UniProtKB/TrEMBL annotation:
<dbReference type="GO" id="GO:0016491">
    <property type="term" value="F:oxidoreductase activity"/>
</dbReference>
<dbReference type="GO" id="GO:0008767">
    <property type="term" value="F:UDP-galactopyranose mutase activity"/>
</dbReference>
<protein>
    <submittedName>
        <fullName>FAD dependent oxidoreductase</fullName>
    </submittedName>
</protein>
<feature type="domain" description="Amine oxidase">
    <location>
        <begin position="20"/>
        <end position="454"/>
    </location>
</feature>
<feature type="compositionally biased region" description="Basic and acidic residues">
    <location>
        <begin position="95"/>
        <end position="107"/>
    </location>
</feature>
<dbReference type="InterPro" id="IPR002937">
    <property type="entry name" value="Amino_oxidase"/>
</dbReference>
<dbReference type="Pfam" id="PF01593">
    <property type="entry name" value="Amino_oxidase"/>
</dbReference>
<dbReference type="GO" id="GO:0050660">
    <property type="term" value="F:flavin adenine dinucleotide binding"/>
</dbReference>
<feature type="region of interest" description="Disordered">
    <location>
        <begin position="94"/>
        <end position="116"/>
    </location>
</feature>
<dbReference type="InterPro" id="IPR036188">
    <property type="entry name" value="FAD/NAD-bd_sf"/>
</dbReference>
<dbReference type="GO" id="GO:0005829">
    <property type="term" value="C:cytosol"/>
</dbReference>
Length: 549
């Protein structure tokens, strides 16, 4: 067995090199925390060779893909300041700002994106819905363009349906009722029902309302109307006054989200953190007192190493974590634990569902779509200004389109002459779509874009790339309703902290995952034993709707 430190310091093992794991590592390492005179000896175990988890940047032939799309925005000032300290905000116009004559509130003394890569860009959010070969605002807004696209009859039905929902409230014991209460049954059936089923593979009536409460809390027809009216007023609003789903400006690393996490990992190593890649944790061992004593990880060659520590921070999926607690070790013949995992907790963990996805990148000369907005774009005038296009039309399997040019022009080798499009497909690991080859996925994506009249056909495609992502989205059905029991069990391990999206089986945004790590580190530093603060991130209504003090 290897001691994580052997230096007399407090040893911490962090499982996972994604946003939560690396945030925890840097929180422990900064200000000399892992230096020669520091308090901590920290080791990060990352199962892959890359950092950032789903927030990584994929590089392909000079172009970059953002897996899932990551807006850098938070209503938690700690997180905004944290990001800005890693990659400072732009102090001069970016390439597309200059070409388009676009102006932002630039950061005084900030770096020039044209001169350095270590910079965070300010971006304008444009996202729309594609339905019935028409574009609608995202989130849905009661605008003249919506009424024109729907026609008089559907508009009337939607209006009366919404009025009914104001007075007749359904019990919010599932996601379907959650949406109906906020938008009315007609808009729900058009824009939420089919897309939600496409995303999760389950009808909204089978999904916990918790998902809606965390992802679109505070968003409704009334909030959309309020937001639209306030936008027309002369007084400029602070972002703390806008619902998270309605934020119109965000930050973005020049070279994609993975750039930030690669920078954090580098700073951690320079600060004294040991980072091991290809280190897949397969076992957690506990002592007679019930605390975790060590982890066993497997390297790329199948060799196993046991690593002892005082504290453990885990962002690995809860299903894998529970199955790893005192799992039999092939090499050591480790004896069975005095406190084996209760069979019920194993059942709950193994029943927790996930949604996986496949993303296909297509490099094309141009899009058939016409930019009918008043927002100017780079390159061919046919490129639309959207970051995301939500394909809520049930006639297509693709869930979202990303246009990487609009996230950052530096994501595309030739942003003036080509459009780099990402198509996101939601599926389940092992199903028919998941098991298709990369070539089949790419051919499928080209056919869908052609049928949507976004491109002319395969002849438009210059290059392509396919990425599969396991356990991208923790889902809120099956044994999810027994999560409180699982949390209570995990909290019996006083020195084990579960953080991040998969570490808590909660559909956290990037900032929420970081906040769970910050809370966990604060507990370790202060000696706080209960973990209510760690688990409560992204559960309180105020977290979304109010700026933290």
């Amino acid at each position: 067995m290897v001691d994580a430190g052997n230096t007399g310091k407090e040893t911490v093992v962090i499982i996972g090199g994604g946003p939560a794991g690396l945030t925890a590592a840097w929180e422990l390492a900064k200000d000399g925390g892992c230096g020669p005179d520091g308090r901590f000896d920290v080791t990060v175990l990352e199962a892959s060779k890359e950092f950032g988890g789903i927030s990584r940047t994929v590089k392909h032939n000079g172009n970059r893909m953002d897996i899932g799309g990551h807006r850098f925005f938070s209503k938690d000032d700690r997180i905004m300041d944290w990001w800005k300290n890693i990659l400072p905000l732009q102090g001069a116009p970016s390439y597309d700002d200059k070409k388009l004559g676009r102006h932002h509130d630039l950061e005084p003394g900030g770096p020039d994106p044209e001169q350095t890569d270590a910079v965070m860009l300010k971006r304008h959010r444009v996202s729309r819905i594609y339905w019935n070969r028409r574009f609608f605002d995202y989130p849905i807004s009661l605008s003249p363009s919506l009424f024109k696209a729907l026609g008089f009859k559907l508009t009337l039905k939607a209006g009366f349906s919404y009025l009914k929902s104001m007075f007749v409230k359904l019990p919010e014991d599932n996601l379907e009722n959650f949406y109906i209460n906020r938008f009315g049954r007609q808009l729900y059936s058009m824009f939420f029902e089919g897309y939600t089923e496409k995303l999760w593979g389950r009808h909204p009536s089978e999904i916990s309302a918790d998902w809606g409460a965390q992802r679109v809390r505070g968003l409704s027809v009334m909030s959309v109307l309020k937001n639209a009216i306030q936008k027309m007023l002369p007084k400029k609003r602070d972002s703390s006054q806008v619902e998270t789903s309605l934020i119109e400006e965000f930050w973005y690393p020049k070279l994609g989200p993975g750039q930030l996490w690669e920078t954090v990992e580098k700073q951690c190593v320079e600060g004294g953190v040991k980072v091991l890649t290809d280190a897949n944790v397969v076992e957690l061992r506990q002592g007679e007192d019930g605390a975790v004593t060590s982890v066993v990880f497997e390297d790329a060659q199948g060799g196993r190493t046991e690593l002892a520590a005082d504290e453990f921070i885990s962002s690995m999926p809860l299903k894998d974590l529970i199955n790893a607690i005192d799992a039999p070790s092939k090499q050591s013949g480790h004896s069975k634990a005095t406190k084996p995992v209760p069979a019920e907790m194993v059942r709950v963990a193994n029943g927790l569902p996930y949604r996986d996805f496949v993303t296909v990148g297509l490099l094309v000369d141009h899009l058939r779509l016409k930019n009918k907005t008043n927002i100017r774009t780079l390159g061919n005038p046919q490129i639309v200004p959207d970051c995301w296009i939500y394909v809520q039309d049930p006639g297509y399997k693709v869930g979202r389109l990303q246009i990487f040019n609009n996230w950052s022009p530096y994501m595309v080798e030739n942003p003036d002459g080509t459009v780099w499009v990402g198509l996101e497909y939601f599926c389940k690991e092992g199903d028919e779509f998941w098991n298709m080859s990369d070539e089949e996925h790419i051919a499928f994506a080209i056919k869908e874009l052609t049928r949507m009249r976004v491109i002319n056909g395969a002849s438009d495609v210059r290059d392509s790339h396919c990425e599969k992502v396991k356990k991208a989205y923790p889902a809120y059905f099956d044994t999810y309703d027994q999560m409180p029991e699982l949390i209570n069990y995990l909290d019996t391990f006083g020195n084990l902290f579960c953080v991040g999206r998969n570490g808590q089986h909660r559909y956290n945004n990037q900032d929420h995952s970081m906040a769970t790590a910050i809370e966990a580190v604060d507990n370790i530093k202060s000696g706080r034993k209960d973990k209510k603060n760690v688990w409560s991130v992204n559960t309180e209504k105020s977290y979304h709707e109010e700026k933290s003090a």
